[in-house]
């Protein structure tokens, strides 16, 4: 090595190389531009690379290429590394007349179809570790495309012995594999592709769909990926993969999805800091398939155990999402969901932490037309009343009025006749009639006072307001507190306006004693005073 041509290179703080700067500069445009004006300098020079792709091992490979006058053995295990180093050091066709490493590595990639499965996986890991440090995303696309292509080969068997962990994954979609052997033939690659990061995972699933891989198998892989504990992946990456998975579900045929798998994904989303948008999107999808769910699927533990044992809010959202399907819902589907909800009600009714309002919301979430029989609904309410003995009469009426007695069996009616905690039909009808009258009275009085406030006040408006106050008090006692809150606010506003008018009237009366009649008649265009002030 000539004096003055020595170059010290610090690669990512891992290792220091002493190389000939003239040799490396003749191949690397990056170094050539750096030393172009210092070619004749005899000073000792040092270059520090903080982010060299692949580290010291890859720099050594690149240096060997330069020292060998542009020749090096390229293999599937180093082609990605060499390509990244070539882009970083600008050893390409634009740098010099000498052989360039970019062209050589890309030419080698043309034979990727002859690589083994393990060589493809190794190249995939290298691409994910080095990108986006370089512009060689072409490599990642080709590696992923070749991997997915191998999965589509009907005669392809696993190149490895399947590990025991694969057997832990439950297959429960409509296209369930008939034999364990058939199952292993279609899913042997599941564990191998756990190395995919969020970006690669999204690309692979879309490639699988475009290459018409079985959608049920794709769905099982998505569920398997989210249920697997991959310790080398950060939590943020896991959240991103979960969100990507939820997005990808819309690309799959609905018939290939299973409720068990969807609830598994929902559980994974609840355990990770997945955004609310994606959780609601998944809940809407599950809700649209609620008729295929089972009771075990719905018995999701509540995130707030001090409120209730099971997550009833989730079930309410799922039921509402199901009803949003509207005309798409068949009679059979509606009946299945009604039966499922009745089973759920019976299961959660003994929970003494479950508030009456929340239980009532579950009871009333489906229309009466969804049930052919009210027996199991009656059974659930009966259990709830036995556990929650502290309920008021109004709360009991609210729950029991949902039961259609015309849809009860003779056995249920006989039990009802002997059930002292269950309000009688006469009591229910009486309270319902009273509540209807209250609603009508509130509406009529409120409409009248509202019209009066917009035109003129009458002498008896105070009496009307007093009547309305009594109605509102009675309405609260009858369980209408939420309905009359807004009306109460309006009433207070009207009372304030009445007080203001009274002040005005008092001032006018005092002026009447001073002003003479002729001067009063002279105000021909003056507005007439409200009747309240006369």
Relevant terms:
mainly alpha; 3 strands; three-stranded mixed beta sheet; elongated; disordered C terminus; Potassium Channel Kv1.1, Chain A; 3% strand; 534 residues; Serine Threonine Protein Phosphatase 5, Tetratricopeptide repeat
Gist of the model:
The chain is mainly α and 534 residues long.
Model description:
- The relative contact order is 0.04.
- This protein is mainly alpha-helical.
- A hairpin with a 3-residue loop joins β1 (6-11) and β2.
- α3 packs across α4 (79-89), α15 (312-323) runs parallel beside α17 and α21 (425-454) runs parallel beside α23 (481-512).
- It contains 24 helices and three strands.
- The chain is elongated.
- The longest helix is centred in the C-terminal third of the chain and has 32 residues, at 481-512.
- The model is unreliable at 160-181, 453-461 and 515-534 (pLDDT under 50).
- The chain has helices at 21-27, 29-35, 56-67, 79-89, 101-108, 117-130, 137-151, 180-187, 198-210, 215-227, 235-248, 259-271, 276-288, 295-298, 312-323, 331-348, 356-364, 375-387, 393-400, 410-417, 425-454, 461-477, 481-512, 517-521, and strands spanning 6-11, 15-20, 45-49.
- Helices cover 57% and strands 3% of the residues.
- A three-stranded mixed beta sheet has the order 2-1-3.
- Among the domains are: 6-122, Potassium Channel Kv1.1, Chain A, CATH 3.30.710; 190-288, Serine Threonine Protein Phosphatase 5, Tetratricopeptide repeat (Alpha Horseshoe); 291-437.
């Amino acid at each position: 090595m000539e004096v003055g041509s020595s170059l010290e290179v610090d690669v990512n703080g891992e290792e220091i190389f002493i190389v000939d700067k003239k040799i490396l500069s003749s191949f690397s445009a990056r170094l050539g531009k750096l030393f172009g004006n210092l070619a004749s300098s005899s000073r000792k020079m040092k270059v520090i690379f903080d982010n060299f792709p692949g580290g010291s091992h890859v720099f050594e490979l690149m240096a060997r290429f330069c020292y060998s006058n542009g020749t090096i053995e390229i293999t599937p295990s180093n082609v990605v590394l060499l390509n990244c180093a070539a882009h970083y050091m600008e050893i390409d066709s634009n740098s010099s007349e000498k052989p360039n490493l970019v062209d050589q590595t890309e030419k080698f990639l043309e034979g990727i179809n002859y690589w083994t499965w393990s060589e493809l996986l190794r190249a995939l890991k290298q691409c994910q570790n080095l990108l986006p440090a370089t512009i060689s995303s072409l490599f990642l696309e080709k590696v992923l495309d070749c991997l997915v292509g191998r999965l589509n080969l009907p005669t392809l068997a696993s190149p490895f012995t399947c590990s025991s962990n694969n057997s832990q994954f439950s297959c429960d979609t409509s296209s369930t594999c008939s034999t364990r052997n058939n199952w292993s033939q279609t899913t042997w690659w599941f564990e191998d592709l756990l190395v995919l990061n969020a970006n690669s995972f999204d690309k692979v699933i879309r490639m699988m769909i475009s290459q018409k891989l079985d959608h049920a198998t794709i769905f099982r892989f998505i569920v398997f990926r989210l249920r697997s504990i991959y310790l080398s992946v950060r939590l943020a990456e896991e959240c991103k993969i979960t969100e990507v998975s939820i997005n990808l579900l819309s690309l799959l045929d609905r018939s290939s999805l299973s409720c068990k798998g969807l609830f598994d994904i929902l559980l994974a989303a609840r355990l990770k800091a997945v955004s609310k948008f994606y959780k609601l999107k998944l809940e809407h999808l599950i809700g649209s398939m609620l008729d295929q769910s089972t009771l075990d699927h719905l018995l999701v533990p509540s995130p707030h155990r001090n409120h209730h044992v099971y997550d009833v809010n989730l079930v309410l959202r799922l039921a509402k999402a199901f009803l949003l399907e509207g005309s798409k819902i068949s009679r059979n589907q509606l009946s299945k969901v009604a039966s499922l909800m009745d089973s759920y009600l019976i299961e959660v009714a003994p929970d003494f932490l479950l508030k009456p309002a929340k239980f009532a919301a579950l009871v009333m979430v489906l229309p009466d037309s969804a049930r052919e029989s009210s027996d199991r609904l009656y059974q659930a309410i009966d259990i709830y009343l036995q556990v929650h003995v502290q309920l008021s009469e109004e709360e009991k009426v609210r729950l029991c009025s949902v039961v259609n007695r015309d849809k009860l069996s003779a056995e249920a009616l006989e039990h009802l006749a002997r059930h002292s905690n269950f309000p009688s039909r006469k009591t229910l009808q009486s309270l319902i009639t009273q509540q209807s009258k209250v609603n009508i009275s509130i509406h009529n009085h409120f409409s009248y006072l509202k019209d009066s406030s917009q035109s003129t006040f009458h002498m008896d408006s105070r009496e009307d307001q007093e009547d309305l106050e009594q109605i509102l008090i009675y309405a609260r006692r009858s369980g209408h507190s939420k309905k009359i809150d807004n009306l109460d606010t309006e009433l207070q506003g009207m009372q304030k306006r009445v007080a203001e008018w009274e002040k005005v009237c008092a001032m006018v009366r005092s002026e009447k004693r001073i002003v003479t009649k002729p001067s009063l008649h002279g105000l021909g265009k003056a507005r007439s005073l409200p009747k309240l002030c006369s």
